[in-house]
Amino acid sequence: MLENFPYIVNVHIIGAEDGVKTLLAANNKLKTYGHVQAVAGMNARISAMYGLDEGICKTCGLLHDVAAVVKPGDMMAYAVKNNWYMDEAERRHPFILHQRVSKRIAEEDFGITDLRVLSAVECHTTLKAEPSAYDMALFVADKLAWDLEGAPPFLDTVEGALGRSLAAAAYAYMDYIVKYKMILYPHKWFEDGMEYLAASV
């Protein structure tokens, strides 16, 4: 996958932890590396709360933003070239494609075959209908360990809901950003996920 983008400095990848660090560092994405480490840590915390596999949760966190090495316009061009269906949200804001591109990089360049990891990485920005526990865990971890200054405005709301269930936490975030008009543009996967969760929380 990475070979499609000649400006990316390719590195020898052995394992998710060292591979992600080496790849992001070689491509001047150390801020992203700090973020994925934080998400991996948060996801490990969530794994302990809900009996999930800690190693899988850490791997999800490390790989979820690996597509940061690809320019958003090139994500769009790749999607078009490969006949991917694109949601209107992805057409308006191509960087949203990074969740799907990260999944492809995880699969093709990191050799990840665990469907729990690939599914969670693929929907970590939008979630989707009938999400697994690993999908919801990464979705929530990514939001709680966000990469902007200060604490996220929804921190108390989502952390409070996390004490009840993963579904409640995921829904609390979705409801908050819709209510306070923080969402850039509604994505079909987001809408499907929110509708599904609304019936279960």
Description:
- There is one protein chain.
- This protein has eleven helices and no strands.
- Helix 2 (30-50) packs across helix 8.
- It has helices at residues 16-26, 30-50, 54-63, 72-81, 88-92, 98-108, 115-122, 133-144, 155-162, 166-179, 188-198.
- With 201 residues, it is mostly helical.
- It has a single domain (2-149), classed as Hypothetical protein af1432 (Orthogonal Bundle).
Question: What are the salient characteristics of this protein?
Answer:
globular, 201 residues, mainly alpha
Q: Would you spell out the secondary-structure blueprint of this structure?
A:
Layout: H1 16-26, H2 30-50, H3 54-63, H4 72-81, H5 88-92, H6 98-108, H7 115-122, H8 133-144, H9 155-162, H10 166-179, H11 188-198
Helix pairs in contact: 2-3, 2-8, 3-7, 3-8, 6-7, 7-8, 8-10, 9-10, 10-11
